[in-house]
Every structure is written in structure tokens, then in C-alpha cells.
Amino acid sequence: QVKEHINTVQNFEAQSKEAIEAFRIEYLGSKGILKELFTKFKEVPNDQKKDFGQAINELKQKATDKVVQLKASLEDKQEEAGIYGDLTRSGYPTPVGARHPINVVKNQIIDVFSRIGFNVSEGPEIEDDWHNFTALNLPAHHPARDMQDTFFIQTDPDVLLRTHTSSVQVRYMENNQPPIRTISPGRVFRNEAISARAHCIFHQVEGLYIDKNVSFADLKQTLLYFTKEMFGKSEIRLRPSYFPFTEPSAEVDIYWGLETETDYRITKGTGWLEIMGCGMVDPAVLQNCGIDPNEYSGFAFGMGIERIAMLLYQIGDIRMFFENDVRFLKQFSNSL
Ligand code: PHE
User: Fold this and answer.
1) What ipTM is given for this predicted complex?
2) How far apart are CA 148 and CA 140, in angstroms?
3) Residue-wise pLDDT tens digits, 70-116
4) Interval between CA 302 and ligand 1 midpoint (Å)
């Protein structure tokens, strides 16, 4: 009788977890066949005890092994099904895209400034006259408006595509009191002829720092820190300049040197490259945005992301950023 059980156990096969569990309960469960046999063992005459005992021990071992073995082979099958499960899947690897170089550089700039406490602010690309011009000390008919060839939307001169992200700074000051430390990355638009060096769409990161007793020295140290972190060098010069919203104003050049043909193209052969505009925020602008200029002062700066990406990656033509040529874009697939 026990021999028969051993045979059944050895030949048992199961395809599901449930069937294996049922088998385990039938043989090894607390009311199972083995339990019953062990109970019978006591009634077996002494001269048969040895054979009987050996037989039920063998049965117990075989049943236990069987459960383990069936479970393992079921798991193997499930794993295989997981790997080879979807037979309609393509046999070719799926190509993975790359981050756009403008995003790569934008993220680097954000990273550098966030380490010294700047947050990131954003605003609309379609702006009104106040936020793009008037609040920034550029009243209607101000000649400096010509510096920024503007795209107006429809026939309403109050609706336009922002020409810089200084508009975001205005919005930020209107909604936050100092201390303010914010950078505003974003897309801007200017009605300019497209060439290797200029485009009607490009990207900026503008920065704003407002607190008590902020001076031009703070601005300069921030610029030195930025160029050092971003380019690994901080040989910069500040050239006096003019912006309606800052006073005094300056343009920042970085010394790039002349090594490759691209260097000659992007630095116009002087070795110096203008990378941003900056200055102390004009008190009238603070006033326009609800900040008391008698209590607070601050600096602002603004740079074009394309310009910086061209420098970092030795790209000689700004149009490449907008053509979406995969041969160009995939060169950045190692960048985070
Ligand atoms: N808004 C200026 C531009 O777009 C850049 C700038 C920002 C200059 C802040 C000075 C201060 O050209």
C-alpha cells in the first residue's frame, strides 16, 4: 500500500500553484496521508515495524522533494514567459532619444545658480507691454525699444512675444518681497534676420538678486563664480553698456582664446566673447514692481543659452539648434 503511494508521488505532475498546494495538503498536510500512516505505524506488528517505518519515511521524503521540485520548475516557466512573453515585440532595439543641447546647458546653468541659493521662475511667452517694456523703464516711444525688434500679436500693440525673460523678473517682483534670488530660463523672440549668429527664436536665462545693501561687488563675484563653474575659467571683463532697466549697466565678455576655426568664428577673431548683459536694477524698476528702492537694491543679468552652448560645444552655427537634424542631436546622447 505504501509502495503504491510512492509510485503515485513519483509520477505526479502539476502545472499550477493550486495543484501543487493540493498535492502537498493531500500527502503532507496535518490530516494528510502521511499523518494517517504514522498513526497506523503504532498498530503494526513489531516484526514489520522496520520495513513499514522505512517505507513511510521514504514516502515522506519523496513527497517533500516533489513539492520543492514542482514549485521550482513552475517558477522557471513563469520567468521564461516573462522574457519571451510578447512574441509580437520587435526584434530590433528601440532607439532612445537624446536631451537637446539647449536643455543640457540650461540645466547646467540652473545647477550652478541653485548651489548659491537661486530658485527658478517661469512666466508666459506671450506678454503684455507692461511686463516686457513699461515696468522695465521702457515707456512707449522710448528709443531703446528698438534694441529689441518685437513681434506683436494680431493688431493689438499690448500683446507681444516676450523679447527677454526680464518680463518674468517683473512678475516675480510683483508677487514676492525681498530677499529675492531667482533665475528665469525661457524662450524669447525677436524679429531678426536669421544667420549663423542670430535667430528669431532663442533661449535666455536671466537672474535677479534683491536684498538690503546689494552692491556691484556682489554682482561681480557672482559672475566670477558662474564663469568659473560653467567654463572652468573666470577671465572676464566688464564693458560699460546701457540697458534701460539697470544703472550702471555692463556687458560681460569671457576670454576664450583662439585655438580652433570655430573659436575664430564665434569670437570674431579677438578671443573675447560677449556672454551676457548685467547691471544694478534701476530704482525706478523696483518702484514699478512694488519694492521700496530706499530699503532694497539689487542686480540683474541675462544671457543667451545658445551662445553659451555654442562656446561649450564648439558649434559654429546657431541654426543647428533649431533644425532637429538627428545626426547633430544624437551627439548629445551622453549628456544628462
Ligand atoms: N534683458 C537683457 C537682454 O535681453 C539682458 C539683461 C538682463 C541686461 C538683465 C541687464 C540686466 O538683452
Assistant:
1) 0.97
2) 13
3) 988 888 887 777 766 667 777 788 777 889 999 999 999 999 999 99
4) 5
Q: What is the pLDDT of residues 317-329, one digit of tens each?
A: 999 999 999 999 9
Atom 5 of ligand 1: nearest residue by CA position: 302
Report the atom number in ligand 1 closest to the C-alpha of 163.
Answer: 4
Q: Partners of 187 in the beta sheet?
A: 203
Residue partners of 323: CB distance under 8 A and separation at least 6: none
Q: What is the whole-number distance in angstroms between the Cα of residue 301 and the centre of ligand 1?
A: 6
Joined together, the cell numbers standing for residue 228 give 568659473
**What is the pTM for the complete model shown?**
0.72
Q: Residue 265 — pLDDT band, cuts 50, 70, 90?
A: confident
Per DSSP, the three-state class of 246 is: strand
Rg (CA), the chain: 37
DSSP H helical segments within 164-260, as ranges? 166-175, 216-231
Q: Whose CA is nearest to atom 2 of ligand 1?
A: 302
CB of 302 sitting under 6 A from ligand 1: yes
247 marked ligand binding residue: yes
Q: How far is CA 244 from CA 148, 166, 198, 263, in A?
A: 12, 12, 22, 31
